Amino acid sequence: MQKEELVLPRMANRNPDCDSEFTRLSGYMGSVEALIACGEALARLLKAPQTLALKGPLGAGKTHFVKGLARGLDCLAEVSSPTFTLVHEYDGGRWPLVHFDFYRLESANDLDALGWQDYLAEQCIIAVEWGDRFPEALPTDCLRVAISIDGDGRRIQIGGAE
User: Fold this and answer.
1) Boundaries of every domain in the chain
2) What's the per-residue H, E or C state across 50-67?
3) Is 90 exceeded by the pLDDT of residue 109?
4) Are 81 and 103 in contact (CB under 8 A)?
């Protein structure tokens, strides 16, 4: 079995307002472990404050990617999907990780009750599952992560912020 390696190049080209163009990274992850490792590698490059908007169909692996983010931030907490609680906070790493899920929200106005603006003002890493539901609520320097199902693996595209 071939070992998968993730290389995250630094590129000056960016387009934070476009969900369909990704100029940083595109790759295939053949396993859940590879998807987690991708999140971990990216997290090692992140500095707070940074918001990541994750999009992809149900079962694509958005929560697994966030598990990798937590690992890369040296957070020891067990990451789970915030589908029903809408937001989870994970402390103890290099930066706090805040994990949102926009799937069950009706509108961007619902974010006020969750303290969205307060979190954006904090020195933390914010990962938003279903972040494409309310793009108007995202910061302009948001890093966009698209995960799609491709056979038995996942295709990932990362871009947006510098």
Assistant:
1) 32-159
2) EEEEEECCCCCCHHHHHH
3) no
4) no
Q: For the segment 96-107, what is each residue's pLDDT rounded down to a tens digit?
A: 999 988 888 888
Q: Which of 22, 29, 24, 32 is closest to 5 using CA atoms?
A: 29
**Orientation of helix 32-43 relative to helix 62-72, angle to 10°:** 40
Q: How far is CA 154 from the centre of its chain?
A: 15
CATH number of the structural domain 32-159? 3.40.50.300
d(CA 51, CA 25): 17
Rounded Cα distance between 53 and 135, Å, is 9
Helix (H, G, I), strand (E, B) or coil at 147: strand
pTM of the model: 0.81
What is the gyration radius of the CA atoms in the chain, in angstroms?
15
How sure is the predictor about 4, in pLDDT bands with cuts at 50, 70 and 90?
very low
